[in-house]
Amino acid sequence: MATLIILFATPFFFILIAVELFFNRKRETSVYRINDSIMSLSLGVISQTKKLVIFSFATLVYAWAGDSIAITHLPVDSPVVWVFSFVFYDFLYYWFHRFSHRINFLWASHVVHHQSEEYNLTTALRQTSSSIMVWVFYLPSFVIGIPAEVFFVSGALNLIYQYWVHTQLIGKLGWFESIFVTPSHHRVHHGQNEIYIDKNQGGVFILWDKMFGTFQEELDDEKVVYGVRRPVNSFNPIWANFHTWTSLLVDAFRTKSWLDKIKIWFMPTGWRPKDVELSHPIKKQIAGTQVKYDPQTSSAVKYYALFQYATCVFFSVMFILLALKLEFALSLLFWMCITLPLLTSGLLLEGFKSAKMMEVSRIGATIIFVFIMKNELAPVLLNFVIGYLVLSILLFSTLAKRSFAKAS
Fold it and tell me: Any idea of the CA torsion for 44, 190, 205, 13, to the nearest 10 degrees?
């Protein structure tokens, strides 16, 4: 249900991106970079589609919780229950979000959403694929008897609301600012400025931040600096998801203290074992001093990556609609065919020469997959896939004649 709601909202997401792009050009505000935006959008596609392939532990917990821990069962047809569920969901989201900024292993997942060094509507779609233990924060909904369908719809609507606040083109909104999260509030949340870090954690209502001491107004004399102080410096969506996880794992391996090997995952964000901090120091950038990661590649490469993303969106929609009818093996292969172009496109945007060979291999593997599975695919879908492959070969053969700048 929630995935379908997000699916139906997706066309409006892209319409609003087009509107923001129009005003961005008109005002000459330069809030978009095509490589950064494609990275954010790619992470969004992977996040939504992987849910249909990876059967999460949270799914089992939610299926069990509805009947096992509820102290009552609220009626699904009551408008009051729907309104209450929406507000209560945001209250629980606030605490999940707040702890995600405070605890290492939760931050390792959530950091993906904060990695972009730009701030625009594509940033809203930059979602993680590596979250764990999220379900713990939402169990109270099931304890008080909120029906599962109401809970999941509340979550989807909460996520949709948060989309529009990821923009620099809307200023402060008067009285609305006192109750609801606005673009101004959320710009603060994405800032790495010392005064802005870990502020404004609410999803829909800013009331929680004002009640629990995490509110910070956007200041006229403190321009928001976006991104994180340990930048990922990559357009590889897989690395973006595991960048911080890898750092924690390496620190846990390096430390000589067995206690620290366990403790590191649950300590405050940024905590490292003392022996590792001394032997392998990490220099964090000061807000406002960073140089944005922007390897120079040709416009042709950027438009090729944009073409790959656009077709991946189309096939992602098909995948979401067909996923429940597919066997696991076929579903996994379908998902890999959607994900791999996003990976190779990211590497092309970084300018790595090896990315050309990876893209050739990826196209070849997709051709083999389509040939093997041609009898399993609907004729219309098969024709679209063949058309996509022909276009990819034509476009990439043109690119192959050009030289790709090597990433610094």
Answer: -30
Domain that holds residue 369: 299-399
Which helix (H) or strand (E) segment holds residue 63: the answer is: helix 57-68
Contact 378/330 with Cβ under 8 angstroms?
A: no
Per DSSP, the three-state class of 268 is strand
By C-alpha distance, which of 305, 314, 301 is closest to 399?
301
Q: Which two tokens mark 160?
A: 């949709």
171: CB partners within 8 A, 6+ apart: 183, 184
Residue keyed to tokens 């579903």: 331
Contact call for residues 352 and 62 (beta carbons, < 8 A): no
**pLDDT at residue number 1:** 62
- Under DSSP, is residue 52 helix (H, G, I), strand (E, B) or coil? coil
* Distance from C-alpha of 2 to C-alpha of 320, rounded to nearest angstrom: 12
Q: Where does a domain end: 177, 212, 247?
A: 212
Q: Has residue 45 been placed in a domain? A: yes
Q: Which of 173, 190, 174, 182 is nearest to 207 (CA)?
A: 182
- How high is the mean pLDDT of the chain? 90
Q: Are residues 108 and 207 in the same domain?
A: yes
Of the three residues 197, 212, 227, the one that is the final residue of a domain is 212
**Structurally, how many domains does the chain consist of?**
2
**pLDDT digit string (tens) for 258-302?**
999 999 999 999 999 999 999 999 887 777 777 899 998 888 899
* Rounded distance between C-alpha atoms, residue 183 and residue 16, angstroms: 14
pLDDT digits (tens, 9 = 90+) for 66-79: 778 889 899 999 99
Hey, is 17 helix, strand or coil? Answer: helix
Q: Count Cβ atoms below 10 Å from residue 173 Cβ, excluding itself.
A: 13
pTM over 0.85: yes
